[in-house]
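> forwarded from #structure-qc
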């Protein structure tokens, strides 16, 4: 019988704690996360024409996602600060949604999925903020990790 999984961020009394990764080996790590901004086709047309009131929303969202990934440990309690080697935010613009992909890489003792999730989420939030004047029906869906690799 397998032992029951426990939450690594809780001590035996159930108090929050930062996980000690000091004994873990340094490894190359990569994570990719996604989020989706669902919006009207008219919003997508305006986005493609760069005709939204706040300008080039994809570039601003890309920079916001990269900046957010770099600051994840300041936003998520108990998250280890990581020196990121690379963060990349890309978009796939479809008829009624924008899919956001954030990849984060580091050489560290812990993974980078929180950085990838934070980058994708903040990029989606930035798109939402920059498009909200023209589309009141938008929503953010499907925030999740797509890939987590360590070498």
């Amino acid at each position: 019988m397998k032992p029951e999984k426990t939450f690594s961020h809780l001590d035996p009394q159930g108090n929050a704690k930062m996980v000690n990764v000091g004994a873990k080996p340094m490894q190359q790590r990569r994570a990719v996360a996604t989020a989706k901004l669902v919006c009207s086709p008219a919003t997508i047309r305006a986005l493609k024409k760069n005709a939204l009131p706040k300008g080039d929303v994809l570039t601003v969202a890309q920079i916001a996602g990269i900046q957010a990934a770099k600051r994840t440990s300041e936003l998520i309690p108990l998250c280890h600060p990581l020196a990121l080697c690379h963060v990349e935010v890309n978009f796939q613009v479809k008829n009624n949604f924008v899919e956001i992909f954030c990849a984060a890489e580091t050489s560290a003792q812990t993974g980078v999925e929180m950085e990838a999730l934070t980058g994708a989420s903040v990029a989606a939030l930035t798109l939402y903020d920059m498009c909200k004047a023209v589309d009141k029906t938008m929503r953010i869906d499907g925030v999740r990790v797509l890939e987590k690799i360590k070498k």
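QC bot note: The domain at 27-150 is CATH 3.30.70.640 (Alpha-Beta Plaits). The radius of gyration is 18 Å.
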